[in-house]
Amino acid sequence: MLDFNTNHKALVLTAFIVFVVLSFGVAIFPANEMQKYQPLPEQEDLTEQEFKGLKIYNAEGCVACHTQQVRNIEMDQVWGKRPSVPEDYHFSKKRLDVWRQSASVLGSERTGPDLTDIGRRQPSESWHLLHLYNPRAVVKESIMPNFPWLFKEVDSNRVKASDVVVAVPDEFLDDKSKKVVATDEAIQLVAYLQSLQQAQMPENSEPEFIPFSKKNKKSNDQTTEASSGLDGEKLFTSTCATCHQSTGQGVPGAFPPLAGSEVVNNKDAKKMIRIILEGYDEMEGYAAMPGFAEQLSDAEIAAIMTYERSHWGNDAPEVTEDDVRKVREELENTKAQ
């Protein structure tokens, strides 16, 4: 028998064998298995800017508080349209350089929300930049730290045409005479966050969420079939409230209010529909709004607009799915010409 007390060679050899076995079991075999997974057909590789953003995401320790894994349980459905699959991580595991492997983005703790599909949930560059500069500016209850080193304060008369100026409310500015400009690192990080969108899987191959109970599954199926029962308030909360706030008051100096808005209260909803579909960047003093033509269906846009036009003191007619469809078709026909 081996006597580790008197035979140091046996002790060292045994420790080495255990180390090798564990290395193969914990690292080498799993890594080799991951090489078998190919990207999904509609999944796009990271651009150079997005890949630099991934490096910053790792360097700033974002993975410590944010996950990128939608579990297959019903409560995770808010973070993505389907559960995550191994193929989703094909491009995020690229080596940072010759010597360094990219850190895992799976995460293990949701101190902050899951970011798997954040590029679709929140596509606005302006929102992300303001959120990085001071999270409390857009989410009052946020416990996320500020990242001021990703920005620089510049005298108003020294702002360049190429600078990306962040629309920061006055109450969050240290020096109101200066402008907050995003650094290249901030732009790259936001580009990476915007790239985080779940790719479409081949038909009939998407994994399903496990419902809390059979009763809930039946209820969910009935809700899916009844498209007319879309909850405008719920859709607004998940899609629009981060910028315009749940009160409809927006964020002064960053995102305009919906309460009392002439566009929202206009009986003719055509302009409002166009803004939601195409985006808007014509209000001085406010950040640009991205378009939601690809993220939202006609029925979802109609439900959101009807909610907005009937709350916070607003009083405008209901918007139908057909109203949105007509404007969408007009815009598509105009682009095709």
UniProtKB/TrEMBL annotation:
MF GO annotations: electron transfer activity; heme binding; metal ion binding
UniProt keyword list: Heme, Iron, Membrane, Metal-binding, Transmembrane, Transmembrane helix
Residues of the Cytochrome c domain: 48-197, 227-312
Gene3D superfamilies noted in UniProt: Cytochrome c-like domain
TM regions (residue ranges): 12-31
Residue segments, region Disordered: 203-230
Stored Pfam families: Cytochrom_C, FixO
Cited PROSITE patterns: CYTC
InterPro entries assigned to the protein according to its UniProt record, in alphabetical order: Cyt_c-like_dom (IPR009056), Cyt_c-like_dom_sf (IPR036909), Cyt_c_oxidase_monohaem-su/FixO (IPR003468), Cytochrome_c-type_DH (IPR051459)
Protein name: Cytochrome c oxidase cbb3-type subunit 2
